[in-house]
Amino acid sequence: MVRSQFVSVSRIAFIIVTVVFVMLAGRELHASIRTASISIVAERIEHGDTVSDDVVTRYASRSAEVVDGHYCRSDIVAAGVTLVLAQLDRQNVNVNYDAWAAAASSADRYLRYALSCMPTNSNFWLRLAAVQSIIAEEPLSLAGMMKRSVALAPHDESMILTRFYFWNDFTDATLLAAKSALDSDLMTMLKRGDRCRVNATIKEISPQLRPVFDRTWAAVGNGATARFRQRCRK
């Protein structure tokens, strides 16, 4: 009798677990189907293929489906990030302010959702800081985002070089507020970075970043920076 009850309970547990897995698999399949076109267009953009403005606009607007559907799968969320940023990049604030403002607001909202799914994604923190900087550069807020990006990827060369592009555009106030993160990026870049990639990145340094960069260059020392004077193959 006891053995019979045990077998019955085991069967019930097995059925429950099976049903749960089927439901989860069904949700994942549904998510993939609903967002397949978003992922395809995002992949084309990432590969550098030509995608018309109309197509980008249409599919960027569909990124709301990711938020509304509460999809937090990394590939789906990342595809949405690509699209909302591509949409923003194609706007001209001087030609159509309303369209630019709408795209900036959409990108900001989507990136915040993306970070609620993946709070340890260094690139998403960087992109949110970049979007925030063009909406309204609030030094303390931007510094916090950049510090998170640096803390989550302190030695990733691609991320460091990408962050440099944004450091180069920030105001003195933001650079000062994010001093520790900025110093860390510059020091790591000059000590460990590939000289050819770094040389290409630092070809143009903004007036506000120049003093900070020069101080770091001096602190690293001639022994470490001498290699950057060597020519790179074209």
List keywords for this structure.
234 residues; mainly alpha
3D structure, described in words:
With 234 residues, this protein is mainly alpha-helical. The protein has helices spanning 2-46, 53-61, 64-68, 74-89, 97-117, 122-135, 139-152, 157-167, 172-177, 179-192, 195-201, 210-220, 222-225. The protein contains 13 helices and no strands. α5 (97-117) packs antiparallel against α6 (122-135), α7 (139-152) runs parallel beside α10 (179-192) and α10 (179-192) crosses α12.
Shape: globular
Beta-strand percentage? Answer: under 5%
Radius of gyration: 23 Å
Give the biggest beta sheet.
none
Low-pLDDT runs of 5+ residues are 19-33
DSSP, total strands: 0
- Please, how many helices? 13
Mean pLDDT: 86
Helix content: over 70%
Structural class: mainly alpha
The span between the termini is 81 Å
Helix and strand sequence: HHHHHHHHHHHHH
Which helices and strands occur, and which strands form pairs?
Layout lengths: L1 H45 L6 H9 L2 H5 L5 H16 L7 H21 L4 H14 L3 H14 L4 H11 L4 H6 L1 H14 L2 H7 L8 H11 L1 H4 L9
Helix pairs in contact: 1-4, 2-4, 4-5, 5-6, 6-7, 7-10, 8-10, 10-12
